[in-house]
Amino acid sequence: MFPGAGPKRPVTLVVVAAAAVTAALGLTGCSVDATKATPESKRFPYTGTSLKLTTHEVATDLVATDRKDIKVTRWFDAAAGSERLTWTLKGDTLDIDAGCTGIALCDARFKVEVPRGIAVTRDGERTALTGKPPARR
Questions:
Q1: Which of 34, 61, 77, 97 could form a disulfide with 111 if both were Cys (CB 3.0 to 4.6 A apart)?
Q2: What are the extents of the domains in the chain?
């Protein structure tokens, strides 16, 4: 067997990688908070009756409003890594994403406002969001 080969080598690589990430994050101060970031907004004209929302597991508030378009607000804060920011509407699919790649430290949050009456699926699952008032008991 060669020196450094065998089952201990992958563990050593993981330890070295973890140390590098820890050192890099230590240099950034480790404080990112999307709630303190300056919000950015984008509006999308929309006349459909249903919407497929893909969030890529980013925290997203979904709200039915008295508007005729879709409004997306994004809060994003990053201290390290390459930014990955997406907000596109193609057909009936709204794709939103915000994150970092590489040795990264970032935080993101979205708010999506849709016109009342639009049926919305989030990440492939139906939501209760239709813009209709809840039934009275």
A1: 61
A2: 1-30, 31-126
- According to DSSP, the residues that pair with 77 across neighbouring strands are 107
Residue range 115-124, pLDDT digits in tens:
999 999 999 9
Length of the chain: 137
Mean pLDDT along residues 6-25: 46
- Its pTM stands at 0.71
pLDDT of 135 over the 60 cut? no
| 106 contacts 81 by C-beta, under 8 angstroms | yes
User: How many C-alpha atoms does 5 have within 13 Å on its Cβ side?
Assistant: 3
Please name the residue that has the structure tokens 């699952």.
Answer: 125
Of 64, 58, 116, 129, residue with least CA distance to 87: 58
End-to-end CA distance of the chain: give it in Å, rounded.
Answer: 74
Most confidently modeled of 11-20, 38-47, 75-84, 96-105?
38-47
Angle of CA points 124, 127, 131, to nearest 5°: 135
